[in-house]
Give the backbone structure.
Amino acid sequence: MHNVEMFRDLQGEATEWRRYLHENPELDYRLHNTAKFVTEKLASFGINHIETGIAETGIVAMIQGQGGDGPTIGLRADMDALPIVEASHKPWSSKVPGQMHGCGHDGHTAMLLGAAKYLAKSRNFKGAVALIFQPAEEGALGGQKMVQEGIMDRFGISQVFGMHNSPGMDVGKFAICHGPIMAALDDFDIIVKGRGGHAAAPHRTIDPVVIAAQIIIGLQTLVSRNTSPIESLVLSVTKFNAAQAYNIIPDHVEMGGTVRTLQSDLRDLAERQILAAAQGIARGFGADVEFKYRRHDPVTFNSTEATNLATKAARNLVGAASVDDKIKPRMGSEDFAYMLEARPGAYIFLGNGPTANLHHPAYDFNDEALAYGIGYWVNLVDTVLAG
Ligand code: NI
């Protein structure tokens, strides 16, 4: 059991790593400099089992404990930045125009490196720790790709843990819940195919704009009339493309949107019912639809035992009152969900203080949180792999 003061020295070092990563952001799978930096640091800590090039630029590094046989647990950090023009005005702002660490993955990487340095020195646990550094969390499915490339079996990982910073939550606080903690993310496209013509003679057309408007209203009843009031389904139509002129009724209208749910069976319902509603409405007016539904991140699901272990580890670090283990799930999504589909585990939020929100140009990871993140990882290893 460690309290946070034991990680203050490491925080100083991790701050330098974090700011270096912040100045040098890279996107999706193209994390060549970031991966090189991480690999060199891991090697400098005396870790000699490092595999690179997983899912292109992902890394898995193994630290064996000295406490005898035991399971291997995976600790995961994401490393990728976002295509945003930074406006944090910090001295360590991005040196790459149009790219920034706007989600704090620089901090996540630095915290897992800090824990790696500590654990590689102490090795005071049984079994082993697999450090997972993943590329392409931001919409490019790097987590799924690492799972598809077999990291769970290859490294014998039996449980897997993830962490994300949370702006608006005090530094030193943690938040978690059992079951779904982040939503599944799907999106859809609907093309309403009518018959275009002159806007002054609508009776000679089948106006897809009016039909598409009816479909948008009709889709709202999926949430209000087809979903149980205590279940969560979010459906937002976010794209709408019609004619480019004032006097044309277009042949077709393209629209699209997103679906967020906390239960996988609601994804089936959404896919089925969006098509049924759109098709029914369009055909009622003599039009038709083309429909595409794509499933992205699944529900991020925290398993019972792992969530209890994660909660205990955080409480050992900061005390019971600073760890809320009954938060409401968030409707954003996270591709760590693919790792949690492959193995039981838990995902936890770490307070980032009163910073700008994630994905905002003024956002910056809070370096004061580094000691807490490092301490959480070390305490988690202590808790799960007690020798
Ligand atoms: Ni993120």
Residues 31 and 57 are 6 Å apart (CA to CA). The longest strand covers residues 157-166.
